[in-house]
Amino acid sequence: MSASLSATPFSLSQSQGKPTYAVVGAGVVGLCVALEAQRQGYQVTLLDGNEPGRAASFGNAGYLATEVIEPLATPATVRNAPKLWLNPDGPVCIPFKYLAKALPWYAKFLKASSAQQAALGTQAISALNQCSQPAWQRTLADIGHAHLLIKAGNLVVWEDDRQKVAAHQLASKLQQHNVPCEVVEGQRLAELEPELSMQLSHAVYIPEIYRLSDPYEVCQALLQAFKERGGHFINEKVMSLQAATQHIEVHIPGHHHKFDHVSLCAGAWTQTLLEQVGINVPLEAERGYHLTYPKDQARIRHTILSADRRFVMSPLNSGLRVVGMSEIGGTELPPIEKRFSVLRKHTKALLPELFTPEEAQASEWMGHRPTLPDSLPIIDQHPRFPCLSFAFGHQHLGVTQAAITAELLLQKVAKRPTSVALRPYRVDRF
């Protein structure tokens, strides 16, 4: 079928002498890639069957988790897995309806959990995270929204006073990776965060941590800037791709068009398109849950990470965001309602004064994090078709690493030296 440009959704995306670039996926990573491609002189089209910023990007904690430098795949995770799985209030759940399908992914996860692989993964995550906050500052300043990035700091908290050694170990590890922090307790902890339960024993305070005002608000600001700069958004699902040496053909329902370059940034939904161009990676959807309490209940000052309960609380413009849980469960299963109850229980334990009659107003959400067994994203080009590139699989760090990922990807596309060595994030590493 030949597409008539004057009659297709691609009509508005045509270049005026500029090379053309399509970004598939309008989450925070795709939006950052689209803007960066515009900065590099491309005429850019953004495609997604969903509203921009409404999938996994919508429901995260909204902070730049630059202190999270270890992959999930570590020897400690494997040792603790049975205890985590058997705990009814724990952070890990295996939906039995999906278990058989997930077994190959778990096998690769175990392989990636060796001490050597975990150490390499820590280096790779740390390398991206060290560049993440400056990249976000550049991105938001460029579109006139620098105020959407807020220096807030965070607290990793413990209720069990027997875990003070763990706090000091964490602080030491963070300091080795140039993350300023200190162990706090007693009056110092109460001064930092008066709303927290007095039952808390101690915490690691990390002051140089930034958060977004609200992840959806930031996505909308990125989208608006993209459109104002001549970008075109097509609210259609990409059905298929055809790769060639000099171009990539993108198919949406009823239409198709050739682009000089295409980047796949479709998160957990990238797999089908990858298979069409000869790429097979162990990408899974890690389901995460959140509650958002009304804005007037968001009284905490910092992002709070519970080391005991493995969940996060973050004050956003939209309210108090409570995020947790990890389920390898694909993209089709419905939410497990019990997970929301567990989040409520955890929130009540740490913020006992929050639970007024208005607690029922908390909204519920479940989304799909794109996750690979080694916890590293893919930032790369197709080995045979360099006009096709990839940016996906950021797991829990999509918001954190979105801006730096976009800069690195466009550096690679332009055949320039990359500011971070990209070998750990290559698409053929599995």
N-to-C SSE string, H for helix and E for strand? EHEHEHHEEHEHEEHEEEEEHEEEEHEEEH
Task: State the CATH topology of the domain at 68-104 and 147-211 and 284-370.
Answer: D-Amino Acid Oxidase, Chain A, domain 2
Rg computed from alpha carbons, rounded to a whole number of angstroms: 21 Å
- Biggest beta sheet attributes: 9 strands, mixed
CATH class categorisation of the domain at 68-104 and 147-211 and 284-370: Alpha Beta
Nearest-integer average pLDDT = 92
Secondary structure tally, helices: 10
Percent of residues in helices comes to 25-40%
Structural class: alpha/beta
What is the terminal separation in angstroms?
A: 36 Å
Structure characteristics:
single chain, 430 residues, alpha/beta, D-Amino Acid Oxidase, Chain A, domain 2, nine-stranded mixed sheet, six-stranded mixed sheet, 10 helices
Can you walk through the features of this model?
The protein contains 10 helices and 20 strands. The strands form 4 sheets. Strands 3, 5, 6, 7, 14, 15, 16, 17 and 18 form a 9-stranded mixed sheet that branches. Strands 9-2-1-13-20-19 form a 6-stranded mixed sheet, with helices on one face. Strands 10-11-12 form a 3-stranded antiparallel sheet. The chain is globular and about 65 Å long. The chain is of the alpha/beta class. It has a domain at 68-104 and 147-211 and 284-370: D-Amino Acid Oxidase, subunit A, domain 2 (D-Amino Acid Oxidase, Chain A, domain 2), CATH 3.30.9. Helix 1 (28-39) runs parallel beside helix 7, helix 1 runs parallel beside helix 10 and helix 4 (115-142) crosses helix 10. The protein starts with 19 loop residues before the first strand and ends in a 17-residue tail after the last helix.
